Structure formats: C-alpha cells, structure tokens
C-alpha cells in the first residue's frame, strides 16, 4: 500500500485508519515530496522511511491512495496504473472523468467493478451531504435539493487549523489578529467563500456538490443549489439541507431510512437537545443526521441537518473503505 502525501493531514488520518481497521498491509510505502524523503513515520508501531513520490516508487504496489493535490495526481496517477497499481485519488483531478468511478462505498460500490485503474474519492462536503440524502432518496426518490454548508477549517489543511488557533489566542489577548491562509479573519467569523468563484457566481466547491452528487447517485438531471461557508470550527463539516422528493414524505419513514443506513447515525431528539454537532462527530466513522422535519416551502420536502468528520468520511475513511471494498471483491481480470 502506497500513501502519496503521507505527511499531510489526510495522509496521517489514512495511516491511522488503516491500522485501526486492520487493513491487510503487507508493505506500507509512504510517499511524499523530495524534501520529506528520508524522514520516517510510524505505522502500526513500526518506523517506515518516506520515499520520494516518483513513477518508479509505485512498482510492486497493489494500491496507492493519493492525498497530495490535483497536480500530483495528474502527474503520477497514470504512472502508478502503468505499473499495475490501483489508484484511489482524493483530489478533484479525475472525479468528473466519465471513465473513472466516483465512489462512496455505501452508495455505489458496484461501480468499482468497471474501474480502469483509477478511482476517485468525492469532495468532503459531497460525501457528508450524501450520508443524509442517499437513504432518503432511496425511500422517497430525490428530485432536487438546496444546501448550505458549515465547513470546518480542517478542509483547508493543517495550516488553516493552526491559523484558527492562533487567531483565537491573538483575539483573547487583545493582540492584532493576523491572517494568511484565508482572505479574512476566520476566528469568530463566517466566510461565504470556499474555493474560487466561477462566472455563474457559484464557487467550484458549490458546483462540486451538484455535479458529483449527480454522478454518485446516477441522477444526471438532479437539480441543486448550494452555498458553501467556512466556519470557525476546527474539524467536522455540517450541512443544512432542504430536499424535495418525487413521492410523499413523512417523518417516521424518514427517520427509519436514516437509522437503517450504514453510513449514518440518527441523532434526532430535539426535545432533549440531541442533534448532530461537529464536536460530537469529530473522529466518528458515521455521519450524524437530525433536525428532520417536513419542509415548509417545498412539496414533498424534508429539512434536515448532517454533521460528519471532514478528515474521515470526507476524505481518509472513504478512501480506506474503497480499498477495503476492492480487497473483498477484486474486479475480474
């Protein structure tokens, strides 16, 4: 197993989850940039030397999980495949490629059978939103949805998490709050800007949820509108969703659908102040779904709230689950 970007935030979570879930790793090969080569990381109580990510580094590997950005994936993924290594890619480089499966294992693991060496992991907010949308779609048939995301700084990386921590300390001590990662102060603020803006006024992040949702759910005509917001939370994204369905909805059936879905945990007891929150879903494999109610503006509509760990289901965990699915059911030669 190769991990490209092993020293990054997602790479570190992948290593931890591989060990935690007892994935059968005969050899771990941490891969990173030349400046990290030679350093060592710990995996399952063993020290593993970091190797520079070059085409030759994939020789002899069965799988490689890429978490080093789109440019690295574009440069090296096909090189890995040429060396008979299956690539699970966390970047956006191949998600909308018609020949590359875009996979959330709880939803469309069957598409793995048609892969040609590269499998794409969805965007973090897409994966988390679908943990609420998919079981309801399966029960009521999704027609369209509106979403507003509350995305933790972990989605930007380790530097953003440090920036939030530093800004809180600066603010609390009366010092000037300095910013470098985000265009505005993130501590005690909300930034309705995730990724770059398109001519439509939407951001790339917002369109990822629309386009990736269509592909994963196999609903090419699905209509959706999303606003993505960065919030001063360290880890775990939350998403408010208003969804309209083809058939009549009811709360009991909606809760039952969520409770029976393997990727979600029903957390919906507002009378006792129980609902999903990032604080409770950091470091959890399942996403929490709650605040389920009949939507007051949409026909056959439901309003609900989802929280999930961006570094886990939104990235590392989903990639490991894909590798597990491939190990259980390898495609025919």
Characterise the protein shown here.
This protein is α/β, with parallel strands linked by helices. It has two domains: 135 residues, NAD(P)-binding Rossmann-like Domain (Rossmann fold, 3-Layer(aba) Sandwich); 186 residues, Dihydrodipicolinate Reductase, domain 2. Helix content is 32%, strand content 22%. The chain has nine helices and 14 strands. The strands form three sheets. It has a six-stranded parallel β-sheet with strand order 5-2-1-6-7-8, sandwiched between helices. A six-stranded mixed β-sheet has the order 10-9-11-14-13-12. The protein has a two-stranded antiparallel ribbon with strand order 3-4. Strand 1, helix 1 and strand 2 form a beta-alpha-beta unit. Helix 1 crosses helix 9, helix 4 crosses helix 6 and helix 4 packs across helix 9. The chain is globular. The model has no long low-confidence stretch (mean pLDDT 95).
């Amino acid at each position: 197993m190769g991990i490209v970007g092993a020293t990054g935030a997602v790479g570190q979570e992948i290593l931890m989850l591989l060990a935690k879930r007892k994935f059968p790793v005969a050899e771990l090969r941490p891969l990173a940039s030349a400046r990290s080569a030679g350093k060592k990381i710990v995996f399952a109580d063993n020290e593993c030397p970091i190797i520079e990510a070059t085409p030759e580094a994939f020789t002899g590997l069965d799988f490689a999980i890429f978490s080093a950005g789109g440019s690295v994936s574009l440069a090296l993924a096909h090189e890995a495949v040429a060396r008979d290594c299956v690539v699970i890619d966390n970047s956006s480089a191949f998600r909308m490629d018609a020949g590359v499966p875009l996979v959330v294992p709880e939803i469309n693991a069957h598409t793995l059978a048609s892969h040609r060496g590269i499998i794409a992991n969805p965007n973090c907010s897409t994966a988390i939103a679908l943990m609420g949308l998919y079981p309801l779609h399966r029960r009521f048939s999704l027609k369209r949805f509106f979403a507003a995301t509350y995305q933790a700084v972990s989605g930007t990386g380790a530097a953003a998490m440090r920036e939030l921590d530093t800004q809180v300390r600066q603010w609390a001590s009366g010092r000037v709050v300095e910013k470098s990662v985000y265009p505005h102060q993130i501590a005690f603020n909300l930034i309705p800007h995730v990724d770059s803006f398109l001519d439509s006024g939407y951001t790339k992040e917002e369109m990822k949820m629309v386009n990736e949702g269509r592909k994963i759910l196999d609903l090419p005509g699905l209509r959706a509108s999303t606003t993505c917001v960065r919030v001063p939370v360290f880890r775990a994204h939350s998403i408010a969703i208003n969804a309209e369905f083809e058939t009549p909805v009811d709360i009991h059936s909606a809760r039952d659908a969520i409770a029976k879905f393997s990727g979600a945990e029903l957390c919906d007891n507002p009378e006792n102040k129980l609902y999903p929150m990032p604080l409770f879903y950091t470091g959890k494999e399942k996403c929490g779904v709650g605040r389920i109610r009949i939507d007051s503006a949409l026909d056959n509509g439901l309003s609900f709230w989802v929280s999930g760990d961006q570094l886990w289901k939104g990235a590392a965990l989903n990639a490991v689950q894909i590798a597990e699915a491939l190990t259980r059911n390898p495609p025919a030669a």
